[in-house]
Design a protein that fits this description.
It is a single chain. This protein has 196 residues and is mainly β. Helix content is 0%, strand content 43%. It is built from no helices and 16 strands. Strand 9 and strand 10 form a beta hairpin.
């Protein structure tokens, strides 16, 4: 198959972004483009950017990850402020005080059951129906430093850690693909193609 020609438009500070470095980008169900960076959360409605910062209720504006759940709530992962839910123009914070394993959120995955799997440098938090369950090396992770967590099309929960790739089996993570001690390559993101 040949690639289709597409027009690419680059947005910068000149267009209203708070800076030129995007750490996370998400296209939401309504067609808006959300951009997270070190200076806040921006949303593009097709005409202009609106920026959310601390004064808007986002207690930490260093954004590392974005996700949208089935209720169309936006989830914002920050470096140092934990996780924020954005709904109806308001932010609600979830951090260690609410049960997360870390204040740093590296990646958010929305599972098929609409629960959240949250990758952090201190393990994984699973948020479902208002409850949080944390997973660490005590629960089988090969490392607490988790770069990504992912649910594949078969419903398996996978974690990319400093120690390799782990899979959740009966509430315990087991090594699926360890990183050899002599190998400097790390798995940091999951992607699934359409073929098996």
């Amino acid at each position: 198959r040949s690639l289709k020609r597409r027009i690419v438009r680059m947005y910068t500070r000149a267009d209203g972004l708070p800076n030129d470095i995007a750490m996370a980008v998400l296209s939401s169900h309504d067609g808006r483009l959300w951009v997270g960076g070190n200076c806040g959360l921006s949303v593009f409605d097709g005409n202009r950017f609106k920026v959310y910062r601390e004064k808007d209720g986002l207690a930490n504006s260093c954004i590392w990850s974005l996700a949208e759940d089935g209720n169309h709530d936006l989830w914002v992962g920050t470096w140092g402020g934990g996780l924020f839910r954005f709904r109806d123009g308001h932010f609600v914070q979830f951090s260690r005080d609410q049960g997360l394993v870390s204040k740093v959120v590296l990646h958010i995955a929305v599972a098929h059951d609409d629960s959240l799997w949250i990758a952090t440098p201190d393990g994984i938090s699973h948020m479902q129906n208002g409850r949080i369950r944390n997973y660490t090396t005590a629960d089988g992770l090969t490392s607490n430093e988790v770069f990504d967590v992912y649910e594949d099309d078969r419903g398996r929960i996978l974690a990319a850690t400093q120690g390799g790739i782990d899979q959740l089996v009966d509430e315990t993570f087991i090594p699926l693909l360890p990183t050899p001690q002599t190998d400097s390559r790390l798995s940091v993101r999951f992607a699934e193609d359409s073929s098996r």
